[in-house]
Amino acid sequence: MTASIIDGKAFAANLKEQIARKVSILKENHNLTPGLAVVLVGEDPASQVYVRNKNKSTKAAGMNSYEYLMDDDVSESELIAKVTELNGDPSVHGILVQLPLPKHINEAAVIETISPEKDVDGFHVINSGLLATGGKGMVPCTPLGCIMMLKDKLGSLSGLDAVVVGRSNIVGKPMAQLLLNESCTVTIAHSRTKNLGEVVGRSDIVVAAVGVPELVKGSWIKPGATVIDVGINRIEKDDGKTKLVGDVEFIPASERAGAITPVPGGVGPMTIAVLLQNTVTAACRQLAIDEPE
Ligand code: NAD
After folding, report:
1. Are 91 and 174 in the same domain?
2. Chain segment 204-231, per-residue pLDDT in tens
3. I want to staple 256 with a disulfide (CB 3.0 to 4.6 A). Which of 149, 165, 189, 221 is the partner?
4. Which residue range(s) make up the domain with 206?
5. How confident is the model over 17-29, as pLDDT tens digits?
6. Is the C-beta atom of 211 inside 6 A of ligand 1?
7. What is the pTM of this model?
């Protein structure tokens, strides 16, 4: 079997078009321009790239983008004061504090300061609680993007066996919860899981979110399974140059899977698109406006 490729880039481009259309309706009918504020602490090059891309995509969708750059040595209370100010700013509907934060700052304390209605990353405990109890909160962008692609590919996920490899608060746990909400039978595997190959081998859906290059072997994949590779790992090639690989051995896995996301070009592009979608949703909820279809 040769898997069909789930093209995250095309999916994200399509989603961004829909978002831009919703934004123009909101502007015209409600005089509402959704606004996203991104706070970046320090000068981590990868974080700078993410923030720049978020800024560019937000503007391209017709939304307002506000960027706050803070020095590496900013105090926790100064950062919390900035978030509190943004909570009270009516032109800001979504707030994202780029992680990781410097070691002297308690990340949880900062995240808990973000108003849950503006928490477009969906990391606040109120939002994880709402996700776990079937409420209407903000859902973390990466897993939400994965579930959108899975539903697009498979239609109903009901009754399918799914494994999520990785149990982080950002990807693994919310991903498992979303699959459970779709009535999958969900296994969460992690660094202490015994016989990972066996667990993966009985799964119709495999979501890998580990951060270990090609940990999930192609030979483990159940024939016809759908594989979503969240991992982004930069590895050195024989010629000394580097390349990006996922958490799944792509070529052997694509010989067994029914469908698979590539790295790059799979889950990655969806994350920013979903962030924009979450910002539109947050803005509509805050103003009690029905979100345009
Ligand atoms: P994390 O380090 O917080 O969590 C990794 C998880 O993997 C842990 O729960 C751990 O138990 C598990 N794990 C580690 N070694 C394992 C092993 N040998 N077997 C089974 N499980 C093991 O990472 P994260 O933030 O969840 O990110 C995971 C990967 O996804 C990283 O490569 C990251 O770069 C990528 N990521 C991509 C996007 C995107 O937009 N595409 C977004 C977020 C994260």
Report:
1. no
2. 999 999 999 999 999 999 999 999 999 9
3. 221
4. 141-269
5. 999 999 999 999 9
6. yes
7. 0.97
